[in-house]
Amino acid sequence: MTISEVSQKYGISADTLRYYEKAGLIPPVNRKENGIRDYTETDCGWVEFIKCMREAGLSIEMLTQYIALYAKGNRTLQKRKDLLITERDRLKARIHKMQQTLKRLNYKISVYEERIVACEKKLLK
Amino acid sequence: MTISEVSQKYGISADTLRYYEKAGLIPPVNRKENGIRDYTETDCGWVEFIKCMREAGLSIEMLTQYIALYAKGNRTLQKRKDLLITERDRLKARIHKMQQTLKRLNYKISVYEERIVACEKKLLK
DNA sequence: GTAATACTTGGAGTTGGCTCCAAGTCAAGC
DNA sequence: GCTTGACTTGGAGCCAACTCCAAGTATTAC
User: Fold this and answer.
1) Which positions in chain B touch A101 (Cβ < 8 Å)?
2) How much is the pTM?
């Protein structure tokens, strides 16, 4: 798969895909003899994974660390797991906070609803 | 309340508090005769509100719009409500996505657990 | 009265995360 | 064989959201 096809498939610009690779966010992508990127299924899998993690707010720095550990092989299993746990807990906390804020917004919206109804009644008098 | 007290109270730097005010993220803060900020309860309420919304990922641009509408008084009630609804829906969608990612991380962590256990068994043999 | 401290402002600098650009290479179509 | 178009690279530029800085003023402590 070419970079533009992968770009299409995941809705990530080719520039960003190259940036992710250069920054070590995904392992080096497979190349054709002439040096042009030719994404394998595995490469695509990494792209999809990183897209998902980025959208959830995990930092590029952390994901880079994770990939660096991955590249070092089996002896980093525990470290990788620890990293994921840290990020999982952070994500959990963020979600919790956002849920509180969601409730608050819903409440605020309901208050606006009441106020708007009250205003309309006043105008009808 | 002085800016540094408010900074302490909410864990927001004085610079950021000034930036928020200048950018129109919070209505102009009460001042003493000499021009020094003297946050009222209401001012603090706004700070707390904006802190909450920023932490949930609402953009400065959107919050600025909201405050601008607020400053125009009652005739912007409907618009403000609409703005809040848009942001509420966005927030909901983000939370949903993050929950999916949370599940994925949890699954990944469990896979690591198994692999680590398997590795340890191998070593004991 | 003067030194220290906490504030004021406008504006420059920084960071994270892209996004764009110039210059070059290569394969395909005419 | 030459143009077109998709790719390559390194590096510059951009945007959101702060963060820092210099120069100045006001209050308090001695």
Assistant:
1) 52-53, 55-56, 91
2) 0.91
